[in-house]
Give the backbone structure.
Amino acid sequence: MRITIVRHGNTFEAGETPRRVGSRTDMPLTAVGVAQAEALGRAFADRSFSRCLVSPLLRTRQTADALLDAAGLELAPEPATFLAEIDHGPDENATDAEIIARIGADALMAWDEQARVPDGWVVDTDARIAAWRDLAASTTGDSLCVTSNGAARFALLAFGLAPQKLRTGAWGIIEAGADGRFELLEWDKRPPALSGKVA
């Protein structure tokens, strides 16, 4: 059993200050974001996925469509609500500086490094973890999941792994070994042509 997790492509233009956009902000990909998705597809051209699950948000659906098309994979993306980005509550669409002014740097760091949900954010941690475990229990082969950074971290937590950031246009792979333990094979990996060129 293997789960390949992809974060959607860029939604902010070069030079634009990034913001924490969650489930209530349905942004499209930029041209760079589309290029990232196509590069992912080319990188996955020799892969064989049993299914493709995708968040209902536009940015993830566009990423999945461009990726599958570039890879030449004839899979119909299946909507999965547990892959949707989290709800940042009062900090939706805010910059990190604005969020730190409200909750403090330690609280934001605790979210980024430990997935400890800040005050006011709407995240059902138990349900997210359970959904990833249910996916693993029902999966054979390699499932492709196209999601957001906030949602992806719960895959790591579900399988006893430390949360880490997943950059736009990057992927990670979690695999179950013969002993039933889950191993992180790759994380935050980008196609060589784009590595280091986008945030």
The longest strand covers residues 182-189.
